[in-house]
């Protein structure tokens, strides 16, 4: 099937009718994209309208005068960094219209849950969609609609756009009266952990290893009441900095996949029906994914390499206000300072690797592990 480049070449000769995948407009930015033949014909037969670009009609219609093509090129790949201006707010808005937003995950989960006995939300601290894109674990891309740092990422997942947690929603709307929280943070020492588990009372356990959560759930079976399980797991964030040697991130990703499969296997034994949602607070931009000599935009800056706090005008950035403080995330591939020798990966800015995270959905109704 033709690629985006081949579609553009065909459109030079005649209008092309082709159902386009999401985000295709970024790759066909030089073309006029219509959503129906009727819309195109309205302009075509308007004597005052002048076409200044080649035309593609994103529809599954047929017309004898136009070339009809199909496209199966995957748009959500590292090539996004070539076509998205990560400092352009309109580009961010387009991404958020066409992909599932991180702040919409809470509502997505609530609406997806039907009659399951157990629902699990697993949040991995630092995992890019790219890390799972070509694996056997089915994932869909989710765009981080805000800063790609840990605290706001976790809060967007748990609370969405308001102050009501996912568990509170499931309790009141779906009658999930039983709950388990598992975290590697000390609840009394981490304000974020307290915020994330505020609605879960004393049913929060600190774990050292993912298997601790699986074993606890095994011991708690059988589950007679609807049960919500919330797990935070170490991801690639801890391996991305303060390491003398480059981490084996492929091995870490493989361990994450194994943990998800182990959890799925345990739930399949203990519950009549279950649903697992696995996602991440943000992705990681690895040193090897940057150009050989990325441009450093600030002089004598000593803080984070991918975002800047407290400055109103930072070049090549998108600015947000967080807890009353101005924070500017840098667009790919710019840095606020040179990377340290122990910094193998970074986050906090905007790029395909940092801003697109996975959502894995597995359920007892899945066929051979396909996402529900």
TrEMBL record:
A Pfam family hit = PglZ
| Top-level taxon | Archaea
Protein name (database record): PglZ domain-containing protein
The organism is Halobacterium litoreum
